[in-house]
Known about the structure:
Blueprint: H1 2-19, E1 27-28, E2 30-33, E3 43-45, E4 51-55, E5 60-65, H2 83-91, E6 98-105, E7 112-118, E8 125-131, E9 137-139, E10 146-151, E11 173-177, E12 180-186, E13 193-199, E14 204-205, E15 209-215, E16 220-222, E17 229-235, E18 238-244, E19 249-254, E20 263-265, E21 267-271, E22 278-286, E23 289-296, E24 300-305, E25 324-325, E26 329-331, E27 337-342, E28 347-353, E29 359-365
Parallel strand pairs: 15-20
Antiparallel strand pairs: 1-14, 2-10, 3-4, 4-5, 5-10, 6-7, 7-8, 8-9, 11-12, 12-13, 13-15, 15-16, 17-18, 18-19, 19-21, 21-25, 22-23, 23-24, 24-26, 27-28, 28-29
Amino acid sequence: MNSLRLKLAFLVAFIVIASLSPSSALQVAQTGQGPTLASIGPLAFGAEGTLFTADNQGAAIFALDLGEQANGGAAGAKSLDALDEKLAALLGTGAREIAVTDLVVHPRTRNAYVSVMRGQGAGAAPALFRIDGAGAIVNVTLQSLKFQKVELPNAPAANTAARTNPRTQVITDMAFADGRLWVAGLSNEEFASKLRAIPYPFATVDRGVSVEIYHGNHKAVETRSPINAFVPYTLNNQQHLIAGYTCTPLVKFPISDLKAGEKVRGTTIAEFGAGNRVLDMIVYRKGGQEFLLTANNSRGVMKIPTHTFASAAPITTPVETETGGVPFEKVTSMTGIEQLDKLDDNNSIVVARTVAGGLNLQVAALP
């Protein structure tokens, strides 16, 4: 009789587990020291200085405790010409063998952190550097860092034959707000574009929210295009994510709508032109107003007043003109910008591509 009851208990447990919806499937976090990253891409800082790093190849996110490696340098960050050459020399290679994947500023020290991939293909290796206010570059020793790690449960498989390998877009951008790490990217699901809210400290991660948009220039609803860059922002006392896509819609998502397992359509408030991709964005205040500053791969830097966002008319029909929606101003003094972050109340810090093809680190006044 006891054996029969035990078998029935196992059967009931199996049925319960099997009946769970995909959206409730959870991935347990790991902790340890000396993280092993297969790649390093987007970065984001938490308010207390935890550095979140995206590993697209491993479909994972690491929360790094920088410890004493965050200290000891001069406050702030300094402009450096030939940044790629300097980083390559520290890695024992040539400038053409490295790719800068992101740039962020530490919330306390205001030092700049740069993520780098060294080499190509299967032999590529991740590296992380800190640059201080005296221009000193320090290679952060990942092997000595304490970390937490969480793996994303529904990442797309690699497809090197695709126009864009979906594995490189598992995580396209991250931002920390109100105790949660917001993560944009792609999944392996039919409605592939995802937003995830992962509470920190990490414990579990769900399958995320499927997000779609109406793209006025493409004249279609899109469910598979990932968010390229986003920022948390408050509109009418309600928390939103303001997101930029390729070709180049600007979209707002109320955070209250972003519930795991749901499918949510954002509100498109601008079209900034086809043949373009948003690379990075920040919010800043100047002259009593707030602005969104976006770096773009073919249309330069755009300065967009945020006071228009709350009342902007939604774009729900085709946009026949080159641009439409909320107004913007092109910042002609900033060129070749590939990564940017806010350094302080008056300045940004950027990674800029030179005419000759190299990379400079520049401190630039907020426009």
